[in-house]
Q: What sequence folds into this?
């Protein structure tokens, strides 16, 4: 195992991001849910504000676990066009899943915003560090990077504990820098590289955001 848990991964990642410590205009964004646990450790170590950027995968109608794309909290839709064609999915099929995930993102975003008691942090002209607890296919992170790029950050950095080298190479083309702790081969599911990889609950994300909000006051 590479990491004891997400907090351990966050502390290790923070060491690699130490060049940003106490820098002005740095924002750390965690992808809920698990990515926020990692991001909270990084934000604390860097003395940087913590926020969230929500992205959900879009599942196939007959198999929700099969990702056909991703949707972000600001409405960015990324589709795997080849897979959509292979599965003979109609525009109606896709629109139904997009609407379902849009409502879920809005619900979760409202809940998390209430915990932090603030509006989303503006990223324009800032150094943005986007963090997840790992990547496999990278579809949600890819959608997030493209959505964030449109908001014109001065610098866009992706920081992840673990991911396959081909996915990391793909994501590197969408940002200014990638910081990754490990690219093991062969690559299994992200959770295989953690000793403890329990599902992160909304309550833990809310607690971390509330704590970060108090620390930044």
A:
């Amino acid at each position: 195992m590479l990491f004891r848990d997400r907090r351990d991964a966050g502390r290790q990642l923070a060491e690699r991001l130490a060049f940003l410590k106490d820098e002005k205009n740095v924002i750390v964004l965690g992808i809920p849910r698990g990515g926020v646990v990692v991001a909270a450790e990084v934000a604390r170590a860097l003395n940087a504000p913590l926020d969230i950027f929500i992205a959900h995968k879009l599942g196939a109608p007959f198999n929700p676990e099969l990702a056909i794309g991703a949707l972000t909290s600001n409405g960015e839709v990324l589709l795997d066009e080849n897979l959509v064609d292979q599965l003979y999915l109609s525009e109606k099929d896709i629109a139904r899943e997009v609407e379902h995930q849009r409502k879920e993102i809005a619900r979760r975003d409202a809940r998390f915003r209430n915990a932090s008691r603030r509006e989303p942090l503006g990223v324009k002209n800032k150094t943005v560090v986007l963090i997840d607890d790992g990547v496999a296919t990278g579809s949600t992170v890819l959608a997030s990077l493209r959505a964030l790029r449109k908001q014109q950050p001065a610098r866009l950095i992706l920081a992840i504990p673990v991911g396959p080298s081909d996915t990391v190479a793909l994501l590197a083309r969408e940002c200014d820098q990638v910081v990754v702790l490990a690219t093991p081969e062969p690559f299994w599911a992200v959770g295989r590289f953690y000793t403890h990889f329990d599902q992160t609950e909304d309550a833990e994300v809310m607690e971390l955001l509330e704590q970060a909000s108090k620390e930044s006051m």
Observations:
- The chain has a mean pLDDT of 92.
- Strands lie at 26-30, 50-52, 55-60, 63-72, 77-79, 127-131, 155-162, 177-182.
